[in-house]
Amino acid sequence: MDAMGTQTEIIKQIVHKKDSYVVCLKSNPPTLYNQVKSWFEIQSSRQFTGVKMTDYRQIEKGHNRIEKRRVWAIPVSEFGGLYNQDKWAGLQTVVIVERFHQQWNGTSHEVQIYLISLTVDAQKHGFIIRKHWSIENQEDWVLDVTFEEDKSRIRAFNSPRNLALLRRMALNALNL
After folding, report:
1. 38-48, pLDDT tens digit by residue?
2. pTM of the model as a whole
3. DSSP codes joined into one string, the chain
């Protein structure tokens, strides 16, 4: 799930239904996010010496760009206790993904953090996260090409949200 779905109540419902989760952690909740981010920066500077984890690297070339990804899967126990850890039902792994996008006009860099209820496996988690983003990107592209969503000038009140919902419903109907 995207950061919007990273809420402890949603996580409880997922675990209650005996399912697993992969949720993106941004500055929602800020204390936990900053704790993991600081831990990563410190351990990265120490080259993760003595840290139990798995990591995975991947390079993809295509569409006039090169994307380099590194995925670290770290058991929650390595953090020595996370902020409000008991509220994150079933949490087993923190995954950190670092991406470099190299294009003709420059290179971008981003680091994303994920909370995961699955056991530590950087390659598997990297695949799951990548699959989610490919689906999301594909849907966004279709919405923009089909409905020219990016050109929409609708901005008032709940109109953008309502129209986005209608577009997605229409897209789902077309796909059926």
Report:
1. 999 999 999 99
2. 0.74
3. --GGG--HHHHHHHHHTT---EEEESSSSHHHHHHHHHHHHHHHHTTTTT---EEEEEEEEETTEEEEEEEEEEEGGGGTS-TTGGGSTT--EEEEEEEEEEETTEEEEEEEEEEESSPS-HHHHHHHHHHHHHHHHHHHHHHHHHH-GGG----STTHHHHHHHHHHHHHHHHH-
